[in-house]
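Repro:
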Amino acid sequence: MWFVTSEQTAGRGRRHRPWIAPRGNLASSILEVIDVSPAVAATLGFAAGLALEAALQKVSVEASLRAAGSDHMKFSLKWPNDVLAGRQKLAGILLEAEAVAGDRLAVVVRYRQPNVIAAPEATPTPATSLAALGVNIGAEELFAVLSDSWAEFRGIWTGAAALVKIRRLWLERAAGLGHGVAIFSPAAPSSKGYSIPSMSKAA
């Protein structure tokens, strides 16, 4: 089940940080109830990143075709949960899960933004938007492509052999391979349910 809005005023990001999406940006989440362990559920973040990167590539190509002579953007996936345009952050992904009846997990994959028309300022990683990159589309158009892309990569995400393929595809699009990674891990907040670190098995 998808939950989608083009404006978010009281969202929550990683480590319970506030997350705002101004009108015109895209904020979407998909709920999946799956019969897997939390460790396996965490790998769904790989599929989520691939789905968003593929959707952004598609809309970028289509926008470049509409604007004759312009080049479409290249996007990459930054461990653990960001999508980059060059060195700038375009979107984030957050996975959360909670145990439900039948020893299953209800997993919510949150696409935080992507930044369609505006990007936040004063962020640890400089941010950008599709509009600033010259990709002029609407949030509804991007979501239509993203939902199709999610269906494709969610379909691949099944079984051990499929996870090998998902991992290979993700690494082909990974930013910063071979570079150092800094991890900040404060004490986990006490709350019902728990967060799944997206793409934490990339290395």
